[in-house]
Amino acid sequence: MSASASAPARLHRVAVLVLEGAKPLDVGIPAQVFTTRASMPYEVRVCGAARGLVAGGDGLSYAVAHGLEALAWADIVFVPGYRHPDREDPPREVLDALVAARERGARLAAISTGAFALAATGLLDGRRATTHWHYTRALAAGHPLVRVDENVLFVDEGGVLTSAGAASGIDLCLHILRGDLGVAASNHAARRLVAAPYRSGGQAQYVPRSVPEPLGERFAATRQWALGRLGEPLTLQVLARHAAVSPRTFSRRFAEDTGYTPMQWVMRARVDAARELLERSQLAVEQIAADTGLGTGANLRQHFQRVLGTTPTEYRHTFARGE
Fold first, then answer.
1. Which parts of the chain have pLDDT scores under 50?
2. Of 192, 223, 247, which marks where a domain is finished?
């Protein structure tokens, strides 16, 4: 029996900070993703600069039960996007509470224009960050020490994370889940949300021209087809043949859709499949490597070290679930 099975772990504490003009979808994403349930050992508190009514954007208001004391309680603080972030910084007491939370080790994660609040604290100075594409220039102009990247879905700088428009908040939350609980829990949450289980943080925020829908559907079908055949040889030519396009077209459009080259995506899918087997089974490392198309245990260990910075054995010890 594992340690996780012998004693229940303390719930991860999540605070969702609602600022004036908060966008409803941005607020709802972390509140729903991390809601307490058997598969999600999190406790969520929605808070504001003070408890009570907070005027939001899009005609909604929020009755929050907690004030800034929730930031002193939380392990991770989400800052949802809010309207007109380039006009005025949040109140000084809010910025000070964010800084204090970070100084004691809490992670800070901004969704969309919530990045402006983090930038106003100075915590993004010298770091990469992103926000909704409509506001990237304003963020860069107002905070020149921040290295703004307008071409990504989210940025993980360790204890400070930022994401683009609202839907990318789901990608950011799933990314955090993978780090906290492992890939199986993240995939389970993605299925519950009817969301893509993995979109690269480096994927473009939007494609500046229309994408022919039938081709997009074919590529999605090819990715699903490949996920069921990770133990088989999957070359660029094999994937392009399944999608019924040339390898050159497939490679270019695949990267636009996913943020990865086809072979990078296949390798990541194989590593994620190996992660789930390590979490959910007692198969030997050599068998997992063979089943996921990674070849040998040595090859699997090499990719784990490169992608995750750990070994398969250490990963299994960290994320294996007790029965």
1. 1-7, 201-214, 322-323
2. 192
Give the residue among 122, 128, 71, 76 at the shortest CA–CA distance from 97: 71
51 and 183 both lie in a single domain: yes
Q: What is the pLDDT of residue 152?
A: 83
Relative to beta strand 42-47, strand 107-110 is unpaired
Judge if 185 and 232 occupy the same domain.
no
Same domain, 246 and 304: yes
Do 117 and 41 lie in one domain? The reply is yes
Model pLDDT, residue 217: 65
| pLDDT value for 39 | 74
Residues 305 and 302: their CA atoms lie apart, in Å, by: 5
Residue 203 lies in a domain: no
Please tell me the pTM assigned to this model. 0.73
| Cα dihedral 293→295→297→302 (10° resolution) | -80
What is the amino acid identity at position 241?
R
H/E element, 44: strand 42-47
**Separation between Cα atoms, residue 7 and residue 78, nearest integer Å:** 28
Q: H helices then E strands: how many in the chain?
A: 15, 10
pLDDT of residue 9: 66
CATH number at residue 307: 1.10.10.60
Burial class (CB in 10 A: 0-12, 13-18, 19+), 163: buried
pLDDT digit string, tens, across residues 12-57: 999 999 999 999 999 999 998 998 777 789 999 999 999 999 998 8
Confidence at residue 153, expressed as pLDDT on a 0 to 100 scale:
86
Structure tokens at 238: 């094999």
Domain hosting residue 228, numbered range: 212-323
121 and 32 share one domain: yes
The answer to whether residues 172 and 124 belong to one domain is yes
Q: Is residue 226 domain-shared with residue 185, that is, in the same domain?
A: no
